[in-house]
Amino acid sequence: MQSVLRVACYFRGPQRRIGSQSFLLALGGVVLIGISLLECATLHAQSRLTSTIASGGIADVSLDTTGAHVWYAQRETPTGWFSSPTAVAIWPLLSLPEDQQLQATGPEGAAYSFPVTAEDSEGPLPASCSPVSGSGFPFGTTRVTCSTSTAAGTATASFYVTVVDTTPPVITVPADMVAEATGPAGAPITYSVTASDTVDGKITPGCSRASGANFPIGSTTVECTAVDSHGNAAHATFAVTVRDTTPPVLASLPPNITTEAASVAGAVVTYTAPTAHDLVDGAVPVACTPSSGATFSVGITTVTCIASDVHGNESRGAFTVTVTRVPAIAKVAPASGPAGSVKAVTITGSKLATISSVHFGALAAVSFEAKSDTTIVALAPAAGPSVVDIVLSGPGGTSATSAKDRYKYAPIITTLTPSSAPAAGGSTVSVGGSGFLVGGSATVFKFGTTKSPHVICSTTISCTVQVPARALGTVDVTAIANRVTSPKSEADRFTYR
Question: Which domain holds residue 334?
Answer without folding.
Answer: 328-409
